[in-house]
């Protein structure tokens, strides 16, 4: 299989170079997976607009979705990045491991994690029980739509990393089995 190299700033379009500069200023670096998206002249701008679009979910809720989807899809890169971001949003190591397993001690986040896992594992064909629990936890039809969009955001990144295997530039998250033993 082809080996993907992470492109340097000079190897991407002028539009992507400007985005690299913004990311460098905001984050202190350009994450390798974002740089890989820049192999497409329009991909990075399109992806960041989608990723940064308004959502009814809190940052914690978004991280629940990101961690569950990345675990289901076996994406080491996204699990590593979202473990760091999850901690920045107040989750403990133990809570992150629970979330990756598709559960949370918080009833509302648990309903979100369960449905997210169900949607991802079953390609959108979630059980009535997990959908009903989601609504019983206070979520709305609008949340359901936004959940599917958030899942699709993370699936795209998971698939891109699983295909390219570019180096993980975050502290690497252990496989769930190893972390819970």
Protein architecture, described:
With 181 residues, the protein is mainly alpha-helical. It folds into 2 domains: 9-51, no CATH class; 59-180, Up-down Bundle (AhpD-like), CATH 1.20.1290.10. It is 65% helix and 0% strand. It contains 10 helices and no strands. It has helices spanning 14-27, 32-37, 43-51, 59-72, 76-88, 93-100, 107-121, 128-136, 141-164, 176-180. Helix 4 (59-72) packs antiparallel against helix 5 and helix 7 (107-121) runs antiparallel to helix 8 (128-136). The chain is globular, with a radius of gyration of 17 Å. The two termini are 33 Å apart.
Core attributes:
single chain, 181 residues, mainly alpha, AhpD-like, 10 helices, 65% helix, 0% strand
